[in-house]
Amino acid sequence: MDFVDTIGEGALRLTVFAGVFLIMALAEISAPRRDLGFGRGRRWITNMAIVLIDTLAVRLLFPLAAVGVALWADANGIGLFHMLALPGWVAGLLAFLALDLAIWAQHLAVHKIPILWRIHRVHHADVDFDVTTALRFHPFEIVLSMVWKMVVVVALGAPPLSVFLFEVVLNGMAMFNHANFNIPARLDRILRAVVVTPDMHRVHHSTDIAETDSNYGFNLSIWDRLFRTYVPQPALGHEGMTIGLDDYRTDEPTRLGWSLLLPFGPQNRVRRHLEERKAAADEAGSQ
Hints:
With 287 residues, the chain is mainly alpha-helical. It has one domain (40-286). The protein has helices spanning 2-7, 9-30, 41-61, 65-75, 80-84, 88-112, 114-124, 139-156, 160-178, 185-191, 198-204, 209-212, 222-226, 237-240, 256-261, 267-286. This is Sterol desaturase family protein.
């Protein structure tokens, strides 16, 4: 961790984040996979505002974050890997794999547990699918995710460098596999044998429930294959599929306030509001 300590964890992560974001954004512009139905504009402002709020919340609540907790556990010899006295490189590799599986399991849980799904809906409510969708997680979900990661890190006694690398890779891969850029089919097949590609993860953002209930991975594709949640392609194709949630196919998810309040509004009230808006629009169109 000496190099990371010299540069500063936060500065290094921000540099990598900015670099990956810029590359993905340029790739989307030069070779888009799908046409955006709602465009960038307010969507991007909202999604970027959400990640800024998320970052502030984590830094305020958990100044040490996952890497700091790993340093504490390492200094005090806490965790399974310390008990087993594993070589550093073995502990690092196992920690990376275990953390990736833990994030896969967390993603599955937020879809299966109703109260967590109410929070996770904010991510799926995005009406388009691009690099900023990777940033669109409600602050409550980000806080809960950090708590879960810290628990796993301490339980394992994960090496701090491995935790740092996992966090950097997770952020970068999330932007990669949410990006709206076209990867040749042959290259996609090769890549998804190991990692989650945009075409693989886009299936998970389908309005088709059977497809939403699939492809939970962010980094490695092995977990979905292993636990039989892997769906290779959307039934309607990537150009024909609908992104988001059927209840929220309006411009509301592009608004910051609406997105942050979504978990707290009764589902039937939100749905009724959307139905009323649609009925009013249909009536105005018929006149």
